[in-house]
Request: fold
Amino acid sequence: MAEQLNETLETMYQDVLKRNPGEVEFHQAVREVIECLGPVLVKHPEFKERKIIERICEPERQIIFRVPWQDDKGHVHINRGFRVEFNSALGPYKGGLRFHPSVYLGIIKFLGFEQIFKNSLTGMPIGGGKGGSDFDPKGKSDDEVMRFCQSFITELYRHLGEHTDVPAGDIGVGGREIGYMFGQYKRITNRYEAGVLTGKGLHWGGSLVRTEATGYGATFFVNEMLKARKDSFAGKVCTVSGSGNVAIYTIEKIHQLGGKCVACSDSNGVIYHEKGLDLELIKRLKEVERRRIEDYLTYHKDAKFIKAGNIWEIPCQVAMPSATQNEINGKDAKLLVKNGCIAVGEGANMPTTPEGVKVFLDAKIAYGPGKAANAGGVATSALEMQQNACRDSWTFEYTERKLEDIMIGIHKNCFETAEEYGCPGNYVVGANIHGFIKVANAMVAMGLV
Ligand code: NDP
Reply:
Protein backbone atom coordinates (compact mmCIF):
# COMPACT_ATOMS: atom_id res chain seq x y z
CA MET A 1 0.00 0.00 0.00
CA ALA A 2 1.20 3.45 -0.81
CA GLU A 3 2.60 5.71 1.91
CA GLN A 4 0.66 8.78 3.04
CA LEU A 5 1.81 11.90 1.20
CA ASN A 6 2.06 15.24 2.95
CA GLU A 7 -0.44 17.89 1.90
CA THR A 8 1.81 19.65 -0.61
CA LEU A 9 2.80 16.43 -2.34
CA GLU A 10 -0.77 15.09 -2.27
CA THR A 11 -1.96 18.24 -4.07
CA MET A 12 0.76 17.78 -6.71
CA TYR A 13 -0.16 14.12 -7.15
CA GLN A 14 -3.89 14.87 -7.48
CA ASP A 15 -3.01 17.41 -10.14
CA VAL A 16 -1.05 14.74 -12.07
CA LEU A 17 -4.09 12.43 -11.90
CA LYS A 18 -6.39 15.18 -13.18
CA ARG A 19 -4.10 16.22 -16.02
CA ASN A 20 -3.33 12.67 -17.19
CA PRO A 21 -6.57 10.69 -16.86
CA GLY A 22 -6.43 6.92 -17.36
CA GLU A 23 -2.63 6.70 -17.52
CA VAL A 24 -2.35 4.31 -14.57
CA GLU A 25 1.28 3.23 -15.08
CA PHE A 26 2.34 6.88 -15.26
CA HIS A 27 0.43 7.64 -12.04
CA GLN A 28 2.18 4.70 -10.34
CA ALA A 29 5.64 5.85 -11.43
CA VAL A 30 5.02 9.45 -10.33
CA ARG A 31 3.64 8.41 -6.95
CA GLU A 32 6.63 6.18 -6.24
CA VAL A 33 9.03 9.06 -6.81
CA ILE A 34 7.17 11.84 -5.04
CA GLU A 35 6.50 9.65 -1.98
CA CYS A 36 10.24 9.95 -1.30
CA LEU A 37 10.54 13.71 -1.81
CA GLY A 38 8.98 15.19 1.37
CA PRO A 39 12.32 15.52 3.22
CA VAL A 40 13.99 16.90 0.06
CA LEU A 41 11.54 19.82 -0.09
CA VAL A 42 12.31 20.59 3.56
CA LYS A 43 16.05 20.76 2.83
CA HIS A 44 15.58 22.57 -0.48
CA PRO A 45 12.74 25.11 -0.27
CA GLU A 46 13.91 26.50 -3.63
CA PHE A 47 12.61 23.34 -5.34
CA LYS A 48 9.13 24.03 -3.98
CA GLU A 49 9.27 27.70 -4.82
CA ARG A 50 10.40 26.97 -8.40
CA LYS A 51 7.72 24.28 -8.76
CA ILE A 52 10.33 21.72 -9.76
CA ILE A 53 8.16 18.67 -9.03
CA GLU A 54 5.20 20.05 -10.97
CA ARG A 55 7.50 20.87 -13.90
CA ILE A 56 9.26 17.51 -13.83
CA CYS A 57 5.89 15.71 -14.02
CA GLU A 58 4.94 17.54 -17.22
CA PRO A 59 6.84 16.34 -20.31
CA GLU A 60 8.65 19.06 -22.24
CA ARG A 61 7.12 17.70 -25.45
CA GLN A 62 4.84 14.79 -26.48
CA ILE A 63 4.74 13.61 -30.06
CA ILE A 64 2.02 11.25 -31.33
CA PHE A 65 1.90 10.24 -34.98
CA ARG A 66 0.39 7.87 -37.53
CA VAL A 67 2.53 5.02 -38.84
CA PRO A 68 1.08 3.49 -42.02
CA TRP A 69 2.83 0.43 -43.52
CA GLN A 70 2.13 -2.46 -45.89
CA ASP A 71 2.48 -6.16 -45.08
CA ASP A 72 3.93 -8.77 -47.47
CA LYS A 73 0.49 -9.34 -49.03
CA GLY A 74 0.09 -5.66 -49.79
CA HIS A 75 -2.49 -5.05 -47.02
CA VAL A 76 -2.32 -1.65 -45.37
CA HIS A 77 -1.93 -1.33 -41.57
CA ILE A 78 -2.02 1.73 -39.34
CA ASN A 79 -0.17 1.91 -36.04
CA ARG A 80 0.40 4.76 -33.62
CA GLY A 81 3.85 6.11 -32.86
CA PHE A 82 4.93 7.99 -29.73
CA ARG A 83 7.93 9.94 -28.49
CA VAL A 84 7.75 11.67 -25.13
CA GLU A 85 10.62 14.11 -24.64
CA PHE A 86 10.37 14.39 -20.89
CA ASN A 87 13.29 16.34 -19.53
CA SER A 88 16.46 17.76 -21.06
CA ALA A 89 18.00 19.47 -18.02
CA LEU A 90 21.02 17.14 -18.01
CA GLY A 91 21.47 16.50 -21.74
CA PRO A 92 19.69 15.40 -24.93
CA TYR A 93 16.60 13.25 -24.40
CA LYS A 94 17.71 9.64 -24.14
CA GLY A 95 15.62 6.51 -23.80
CA GLY A 96 14.48 3.49 -25.75
CA LEU A 97 11.69 2.70 -28.18
CA ARG A 98 9.22 -0.05 -27.30
CA PHE A 99 7.25 -1.96 -29.97
CA HIS A 100 4.52 -3.98 -28.25
CA PRO A 101 0.73 -4.13 -28.75
CA SER A 102 0.17 -2.91 -25.15
CA VAL A 103 1.89 0.42 -25.84
CA TYR A 104 -0.19 3.58 -25.29
CA LEU A 105 0.67 7.05 -24.03
CA GLY A 106 0.51 6.05 -20.33
CA ILE A 107 3.17 3.35 -20.77
CA ILE A 108 5.51 5.66 -22.69
CA LYS A 109 5.05 8.39 -20.08
CA PHE A 110 5.80 6.06 -17.17
CA LEU A 111 8.94 4.85 -18.92
CA GLY A 112 10.00 8.38 -19.88
CA PHE A 113 9.44 9.66 -16.34
CA GLU A 114 11.53 6.83 -14.82
CA GLN A 115 14.19 7.49 -17.43
CA ILE A 116 14.82 11.04 -16.15
CA PHE A 117 16.00 9.79 -12.74
CA LYS A 118 17.73 6.70 -14.09
CA ASN A 119 19.79 8.76 -16.52
CA SER A 120 20.64 11.21 -13.77
CA LEU A 121 21.86 8.30 -11.59
CA THR A 122 24.31 7.18 -14.30
CA GLY A 123 26.22 10.45 -13.89
CA MET A 124 26.28 10.86 -17.68
CA PRO A 125 25.06 14.00 -19.54
CA ILE A 126 21.71 12.62 -20.74
CA GLY A 127 18.12 13.79 -20.30
CA GLY A 128 15.07 11.52 -20.21
CA GLY A 129 12.71 10.41 -22.98
CA LYS A 130 10.97 7.33 -24.29
CA GLY A 131 8.99 6.27 -27.34
CA GLY A 132 7.52 3.39 -29.23
CA SER A 133 4.49 2.04 -30.97
CA ASP A 134 1.62 -0.42 -30.55
CA PHE A 135 3.12 -2.36 -33.48
CA ASP A 136 3.67 -6.07 -32.70
CA PRO A 137 6.87 -7.36 -34.34
CA LYS A 138 6.03 -10.94 -33.35
CA GLY A 139 5.36 -13.13 -36.39
CA LYS A 140 6.27 -10.39 -38.88
CA SER A 141 8.78 -11.01 -41.65
CA ASP A 142 12.05 -9.05 -41.78
CA ASP A 143 10.67 -7.05 -44.71
CA GLU A 144 7.51 -6.15 -42.79
CA VAL A 145 9.57 -5.02 -39.79
CA MET A 146 11.77 -2.98 -42.15
CA ARG A 147 8.81 -1.25 -43.79
CA PHE A 148 7.33 -0.45 -40.40
CA CYS A 149 10.63 0.95 -39.07
CA GLN A 150 11.10 3.07 -42.19
CA SER A 151 7.61 4.54 -41.87
CA PHE A 152 8.10 5.15 -38.13
CA ILE A 153 11.37 7.02 -38.57
CA THR A 154 10.13 8.96 -41.62
CA GLU A 155 7.85 10.79 -39.22
CA LEU A 156 10.05 10.82 -36.12
CA TYR A 157 13.37 11.83 -37.71
CA ARG A 158 12.60 15.56 -37.60
CA HIS A 159 12.55 15.43 -33.80
CA LEU A 160 15.82 13.50 -33.42
CA GLY A 161 19.49 14.46 -33.48
CA GLU A 162 22.67 13.61 -31.62
CA HIS A 163 22.32 16.79 -29.53
CA THR A 164 18.53 16.70 -29.35
CA ASP A 165 16.99 13.26 -28.86
CA VAL A 166 18.74 9.88 -29.09
CA PRO A 167 16.52 6.74 -29.03
CA ALA A 168 17.66 3.15 -28.41
CA GLY A 169 16.00 -0.29 -28.03
CA ASP A 170 13.51 -1.66 -25.50
CA ILE A 171 10.92 -4.44 -25.69
CA GLY A 172 10.54 -5.51 -29.33
CA VAL A 173 13.34 -3.25 -30.55
CA GLY A 174 16.81 -4.77 -30.90
CA GLY A 175 19.73 -4.55 -33.32
CA ARG A 176 17.62 -5.40 -36.38
CA GLU A 177 15.11 -2.59 -35.79
CA ILE A 178 17.81 -0.05 -34.87
CA GLY A 179 19.56 -0.92 -38.15
CA TYR A 180 16.46 -0.27 -40.25
CA MET A 181 15.73 2.99 -38.43
CA PHE A 182 19.30 4.24 -38.72
CA GLY A 183 19.36 3.41 -42.45
CA GLN A 184 16.20 5.43 -43.05
CA TYR A 185 17.40 8.35 -40.90
CA LYS A 186 20.67 8.46 -42.84
CA ARG A 187 18.83 8.37 -46.14
CA ILE A 188 16.39 11.17 -45.27
CA THR A 189 18.94 13.50 -43.68
CA ASN A 190 21.89 12.63 -45.92
CA ARG A 191 24.06 12.58 -42.78
CA TYR A 192 26.00 9.76 -41.16
CA GLU A 193 25.09 10.98 -37.69
CA ALA A 194 26.15 7.91 -35.69
CA GLY A 195 25.22 9.41 -32.32
CA VAL A 196 21.52 9.77 -33.21
CA LEU A 197 20.62 6.18 -32.22
CA THR A 198 22.33 3.72 -29.88
CA GLY A 199 22.35 -0.06 -29.94
CA LYS A 200 23.84 0.03 -33.45
CA GLY A 201 25.65 -2.91 -35.08
CA LEU A 202 29.27 -3.38 -34.07
CA HIS A 203 30.61 -2.71 -37.57
CA TRP A 204 28.79 0.59 -38.06
CA GLY A 205 29.11 2.65 -34.90
CA GLY A 206 27.81 0.35 -32.18
CA SER A 207 29.61 -0.20 -28.90
CA LEU A 208 30.87 -3.49 -27.56
CA VAL A 209 28.98 -4.44 -24.38
CA ARG A 210 25.83 -2.46 -25.32
CA THR A 211 23.94 -5.71 -26.05
CA GLU A 212 25.00 -7.17 -22.70
CA ALA A 213 24.86 -3.93 -20.73
CA THR A 214 21.44 -3.92 -19.06
CA GLY A 215 21.63 -7.53 -17.89
CA TYR A 216 25.28 -7.33 -16.87
CA GLY A 217 24.69 -4.00 -15.14
CA ALA A 218 21.68 -5.29 -13.17
CA THR A 219 23.71 -8.28 -12.02
CA PHE A 220 26.64 -6.03 -11.01
CA PHE A 221 24.16 -3.94 -9.01
CA VAL A 222 22.81 -7.01 -7.17
CA ASN A 223 26.38 -8.12 -6.58
CA GLU A 224 27.04 -4.78 -4.86
CA MET A 225 23.89 -5.14 -2.72
CA LEU A 226 25.05 -8.63 -1.72
CA LYS A 227 28.57 -7.37 -0.97
CA ALA A 228 27.09 -4.66 1.28
CA ARG A 229 25.59 -7.57 3.25
CA LYS A 230 28.87 -9.50 3.20
CA ASP A 231 27.41 -12.00 0.75
CA SER A 232 27.93 -12.94 -2.92
CA PHE A 233 26.37 -14.76 -5.88
CA ALA A 234 28.42 -17.88 -5.26
CA GLY A 235 26.14 -20.91 -5.15
CA LYS A 236 22.92 -18.85 -5.18
CA VAL A 237 19.87 -20.26 -6.95
CA CYS A 238 18.40 -17.54 -9.17
CA THR A 239 15.33 -17.00 -11.35
CA VAL A 240 15.12 -14.47 -14.19
CA SER A 241 11.81 -13.66 -15.87
CA GLY A 242 11.68 -13.05 -19.62
CA SER A 243 14.08 -14.46 -22.18
CA GLY A 244 14.81 -11.35 -24.20
CA ASN A 245 17.84 -9.09 -24.26
CA VAL A 246 17.90 -8.17 -20.58
CA ALA A 247 17.11 -11.68 -19.31
CA ILE A 248 19.74 -13.41 -21.46
CA TYR A 249 22.65 -11.26 -20.31
CA THR A 250 21.46 -11.28 -16.71
CA ILE A 251 21.63 -15.07 -16.79
CA GLU A 252 25.07 -14.91 -18.41
CA LYS A 253 26.55 -12.63 -15.73
CA ILE A 254 24.89 -14.58 -12.89
CA HIS A 255 26.61 -17.72 -14.18
CA GLN A 256 29.94 -15.89 -14.50
CA LEU A 257 29.64 -14.72 -10.89
CA GLY A 258 29.02 -18.23 -9.62
CA GLY A 259 25.22 -18.28 -9.30
CA LYS A 260 22.92 -20.87 -10.86
CA CYS A 261 19.94 -19.69 -12.83
CA VAL A 262 17.18 -22.33 -12.88
CA ALA A 263 14.25 -20.59 -14.58
CA CYS A 264 13.31 -18.04 -17.24
CA SER A 265 10.13 -17.34 -19.22
CA ASP A 266 8.31 -15.66 -22.09
CA SER A 267 4.72 -14.55 -22.36
CA ASN A 268 3.59 -18.17 -22.99
CA GLY A 269 5.12 -19.79 -19.92
CA VAL A 270 8.07 -20.72 -17.75
CA ILE A 271 11.06 -23.00 -18.29
CA TYR A 272 12.38 -24.66 -15.13
CA HIS A 273 15.67 -26.55 -15.35
CA GLU A 274 16.87 -27.61 -11.94
CA LYS A 275 20.44 -28.34 -12.95
CA GLY A 276 20.84 -24.82 -14.39
CA LEU A 277 19.73 -23.18 -17.66
CA ASP A 278 21.56 -23.92 -20.92
CA LEU A 279 22.24 -20.32 -21.93
CA GLU A 280 23.82 -21.04 -25.31
CA LEU A 281 20.61 -22.83 -26.32
CA ILE A 282 18.43 -19.93 -25.10
CA LYS A 283 20.58 -17.49 -27.10
CA ARG A 284 20.18 -19.60 -30.23
CA LEU A 285 16.41 -20.03 -29.80
CA LYS A 286 15.74 -16.38 -28.99
CA GLU A 287 18.44 -14.32 -30.70
CA VAL A 288 19.05 -16.33 -33.86
CA GLU A 289 15.94 -18.38 -34.58
CA ARG A 290 13.35 -16.10 -32.85
CA ARG A 291 11.49 -19.08 -31.42
CA ARG A 292 9.40 -19.59 -28.26
CA ILE A 293 11.03 -20.61 -24.96
CA GLU A 294 8.89 -23.77 -24.87
CA ASP A 295 11.18 -25.18 -27.61
CA TYR A 296 13.92 -25.51 -24.93
CA LEU A 297 12.22 -28.83 -24.04
CA THR A 298 13.09 -30.32 -27.42
CA TYR A 299 16.75 -30.24 -26.38
CA HIS A 300 16.49 -30.88 -22.62
CA LYS A 301 14.04 -33.61 -21.66
CA ASP A 302 14.80 -33.13 -17.94
CA ALA A 303 13.54 -29.50 -18.00
CA LYS A 304 9.91 -28.54 -17.39
CA PHE A 305 7.69 -26.10 -19.26
CA ILE A 306 4.92 -24.58 -17.15
CA LYS A 307 2.37 -23.17 -19.59
CA ALA A 308 1.03 -19.78 -18.41
CA GLY A 309 3.00 -20.45 -15.22
CA ASN A 310 4.16 -17.98 -12.60
CA ILE A 311 7.95 -17.95 -12.33
CA TRP A 312 7.85 -16.38 -8.84
CA GLU A 313 6.42 -19.63 -7.43
CA ILE A 314 9.81 -21.27 -8.02
CA PRO A 315 11.96 -20.98 -4.86
CA CYS A 316 15.11 -18.89 -5.34
CA GLN A 317 17.56 -16.80 -3.35
CA VAL A 318 17.92 -14.08 -5.99
CA ALA A 319 15.07 -12.98 -8.28
CA MET A 320 15.69 -10.74 -11.27
CA PRO A 321 12.47 -9.65 -13.03
CA SER A 322 13.51 -8.84 -16.61
CA ALA A 323 10.31 -8.98 -18.67
CA THR A 324 7.82 -6.16 -18.14
CA GLN A 325 6.02 -3.77 -15.75
CA ASN A 326 3.95 -5.02 -12.79
CA GLU A 327 4.96 -8.66 -13.18
CA ILE A 328 5.47 -9.14 -9.39
CA ASN A 329 2.39 -8.37 -7.28
CA GLY A 330 2.04 -8.36 -3.50
CA LYS A 331 1.21 -12.07 -3.40
CA ASP A 332 4.22 -13.00 -5.56
CA ALA A 333 6.48 -10.85 -3.38
CA LYS A 334 5.25 -12.55 -0.20
CA LEU A 335 5.85 -15.96 -1.77
CA LEU A 336 9.37 -15.01 -2.85
CA VAL A 337 10.26 -13.85 0.66
CA LYS A 338 8.65 -16.91 2.24
CA ASN A 339 10.65 -19.20 -0.07
CA GLY A 340 13.95 -17.65 1.04
CA CYS A 341 14.59 -14.90 -1.52
CA ILE A 342 17.17 -12.46 -0.11
CA ALA A 343 17.72 -10.17 -3.10
CA VAL A 344 15.65 -8.76 -5.96
CA GLY A 345 17.27 -6.79 -8.79
CA GLU A 346 14.97 -5.24 -11.37
CA GLY A 347 16.25 -5.60 -14.93
CA ALA A 348 12.81 -4.59 -16.19
CA ASN A 349 11.22 -1.19 -15.62
CA MET A 350 8.78 -1.03 -12.68
CA PRO A 351 8.25 -4.82 -12.62
CA THR A 352 7.01 -4.78 -9.01
CA THR A 353 3.65 -3.31 -7.98
CA PRO A 354 3.58 -0.86 -5.02
CA GLU A 355 2.20 -3.68 -2.82
CA GLY A 356 5.11 -5.92 -3.84
CA VAL A 357 7.67 -3.18 -3.18
CA LYS A 358 6.26 -2.72 0.32
CA VAL A 359 6.62 -6.47 1.02
CA PHE A 360 10.30 -6.40 -0.02
CA LEU A 361 11.05 -3.25 1.99
CA ASP A 362 9.24 -4.52 5.09
CA ALA A 363 11.10 -7.85 4.87
CA LYS A 364 14.35 -5.85 4.59
CA ILE A 365 15.66 -7.98 1.76
CA ALA A 366 18.10 -6.33 -0.69
CA TYR A 367 15.73 -4.72 -3.19
CA GLY A 368 17.24 -2.84 -6.17
CA PRO A 369 14.58 -0.82 -8.05
CA GLY A 370 14.78 -0.70 -11.86
CA LYS A 371 15.81 2.91 -12.20
CA ALA A 372 19.03 2.09 -10.34
CA ALA A 373 19.55 -1.59 -11.14
CA ASN A 374 18.91 -1.46 -14.91
CA ALA A 375 20.67 1.86 -15.57
CA GLY A 376 23.65 0.03 -17.09
CA GLY A 377 21.89 -0.17 -20.46
CA VAL A 378 21.45 3.55 -20.92
CA ALA A 379 24.86 4.23 -19.35
CA THR A 380 26.48 2.09 -22.02
CA SER A 381 24.39 3.86 -24.65
CA ALA A 382 26.00 7.06 -23.39
CA LEU A 383 29.39 5.33 -23.74
CA GLU A 384 28.40 4.50 -27.33
CA MET A 385 27.64 8.20 -27.91
CA GLN A 386 31.06 9.10 -26.46
CA GLN A 387 32.80 6.69 -28.84
CA ASN A 388 30.77 8.03 -31.78
CA ALA A 389 31.64 11.63 -30.86
CA CYS A 390 35.38 10.94 -30.96
CA ARG A 391 35.15 8.33 -33.77
CA ASP A 392 36.70 5.70 -31.56
CA SER A 393 35.84 2.19 -30.46
CA TRP A 394 36.86 0.66 -27.18
CA THR A 395 37.63 -2.97 -26.34
CA PHE A 396 35.11 -5.23 -24.66
CA GLU A 397 37.18 -5.44 -21.47
CA TYR A 398 37.63 -1.67 -21.19
CA THR A 399 33.94 -0.97 -21.82
CA GLU A 400 32.78 -3.64 -19.40
CA ARG A 401 35.08 -2.26 -16.71
CA LYS A 402 33.56 1.19 -17.26
CA LEU A 403 30.07 -0.31 -16.96
CA GLU A 404 30.96 -2.08 -13.73
CA ASP A 405 32.46 1.12 -12.29
CA ILE A 406 29.28 3.01 -13.18
CA MET A 407 27.10 0.38 -11.46
CA ILE A 408 29.32 0.41 -8.38
CA GLY A 409 28.99 4.20 -8.33
CA ILE A 410 25.18 4.08 -8.67
CA HIS A 411 24.99 1.57 -5.83
CA LYS A 412 27.20 3.72 -3.61
CA ASN A 413 25.20 6.89 -4.30
CA CYS A 414 21.86 5.16 -3.62
CA PHE A 415 23.21 3.49 -0.49
CA GLU A 416 24.67 6.70 0.95
CA THR A 417 21.68 8.87 0.04
CA ALA A 418 19.32 6.40 1.76
CA GLU A 419 21.45 6.64 4.92
CA GLU A 420 21.61 10.43 4.72
CA TYR A 421 17.82 10.60 4.59
CA GLY A 422 17.35 8.20 7.51
CA CYS A 423 16.34 5.08 5.56
CA PRO A 424 19.42 2.83 5.56
CA GLY A 425 19.25 -0.05 3.08
CA ASN A 426 16.27 1.46 1.24
CA TYR A 427 17.44 1.76 -2.38
CA VAL A 428 14.05 3.13 -3.49
CA VAL A 429 14.54 6.23 -1.36
CA GLY A 430 18.24 6.41 -2.29
CA ALA A 431 17.62 6.16 -6.06
CA ASN A 432 14.67 8.53 -6.18
CA ILE A 433 16.27 11.24 -4.07
CA HIS A 434 19.74 11.06 -5.61
CA GLY A 435 18.34 10.99 -9.16
CA PHE A 436 15.91 13.83 -8.45
CA ILE A 437 18.28 16.29 -6.76
CA LYS A 438 20.71 16.44 -9.67
CA VAL A 439 17.96 17.16 -12.19
CA ALA A 440 16.28 19.64 -9.85
CA ASN A 441 19.52 21.59 -9.31
CA ALA A 442 20.08 21.80 -13.06
CA MET A 443 16.51 23.02 -13.59
CA VAL A 444 16.92 25.72 -10.94
CA ALA A 445 20.20 26.82 -12.54
CA MET A 446 18.61 27.08 -15.99
CA GLY A 447 15.72 29.28 -14.88
CA LEU A 448 12.08 28.98 -15.86
CA VAL A 449 12.29 27.12 -19.18
P1 NDP B 1 12.84 -8.02 -25.22
O1 NDP B 1 11.78 -7.67 -26.18
O2 NDP B 1 14.20 -8.39 -25.70
O3 NDP B 1 12.35 -9.19 -24.24
C1 NDP B 1 11.21 -9.05 -23.47
C2 NDP B 1 10.95 -10.38 -22.77
O4 NDP B 1 9.91 -10.19 -21.81
C3 NDP B 1 10.48 -11.45 -23.73
O5 NDP B 1 10.88 -12.72 -23.25
C4 NDP B 1 8.96 -11.30 -23.65
O6 NDP B 1 8.25 -12.49 -23.96
C5 NDP B 1 8.76 -10.94 -22.19
N1 NDP B 1 7.57 -10.11 -22.06
C6 NDP B 1 7.37 -8.87 -22.59
N2 NDP B 1 6.16 -8.42 -22.29
C7 NDP B 1 5.58 -9.37 -21.56
C8 NDP B 1 4.33 -9.50 -20.95
N3 NDP B 1 3.41 -8.52 -21.06
N4 NDP B 1 4.07 -10.63 -20.25
C9 NDP B 1 5.01 -11.61 -20.15
N5 NDP B 1 6.21 -11.55 -20.73
C10 NDP B 1 6.50 -10.45 -21.41
O7 NDP B 1 12.93 -6.75 -24.23
P2 NDP B 1 14.11 -6.32 -23.26
O8 NDP B 1 14.77 -7.53 -22.71
O9 NDP B 1 14.90 -5.27 -23.93
O10 NDP B 1 13.29 -5.58 -22.08
C11 NDP B 1 12.82 -6.25 -20.93
C12 NDP B 1 12.55 -5.24 -19.83
O11 NDP B 1 13.78 -4.55 -19.51
C13 NDP B 1 11.54 -4.14 -20.15
O12 NDP B 1 10.84 -3.79 -18.97
C14 NDP B 1 12.42 -2.97 -20.57
O13 NDP B 1 11.77 -1.74 -20.42
C15 NDP B 1 13.57 -3.14 -19.59
N6 NDP B 1 14.81 -2.48 -19.96
C16 NDP B 1 15.44 -2.77 -21.14
C17 NDP B 1 16.64 -2.17 -21.46
C18 NDP B 1 17.42 -2.55 -22.68
O14 NDP B 1 18.56 -2.10 -22.79
N7 NDP B 1 16.91 -3.38 -23.57
C19 NDP B 1 17.21 -1.11 -20.59
C20 NDP B 1 16.53 -0.94 -19.33
C21 NDP B 1 15.36 -1.59 -19.06
P3 NDP B 1 7.51 -12.61 -25.42
O15 NDP B 1 8.63 -12.72 -26.40
O16 NDP B 1 6.67 -13.81 -25.28
O17 NDP B 1 6.73 -11.32 -25.56
In short: The chain has a mean pLDDT of 97. The CA atoms of residues 10 and 50 lie 17 Å apart.
